[in-house]
Design brief:
single chain; 3 helices; elongated; mainly alpha
């Protein structure tokens, strides 16, 4: 584990301390969890953007989704095939 000093605005510090007290956990634990959550969200966002960029780049090429398969999937969803979600 590494230490990282992060200066916080007074209001943020006070809110963090109050929430930590309410939850009866150390403020550092809450801060660590918040940073971890944010980093996971950023990774997911980056991955989603990369997939969307790839799909846009491949649209209309031989690597694009097969049109028959796409039509069948749409038909399946329209007819109520959403079970399992």
């Amino acid at each position: 584990m590494k230490n990282f000093h992060v200066p916080l605005p007074e209001q943020t510090y006070d809110n963090l301390r109050a929430e930590a007290e309410r939850m009866q956990v150390p403020a550092t634990t809450l801060a660590r969890e918040a940073v971890d959550w944010w980093l996971r969200q950023q990774f997911r966002k980056s991955r989603q953007e990369a997939i969307a960029a790839y799909a846009a780049e491949m649209a209309g090429t031989h690597l694009d989704l097969d049109s028959d398969l796409e039509s069948a999937a749409i038909e399946h969803l329209v007819k109520g095939g959403k079970a399992g979600r």
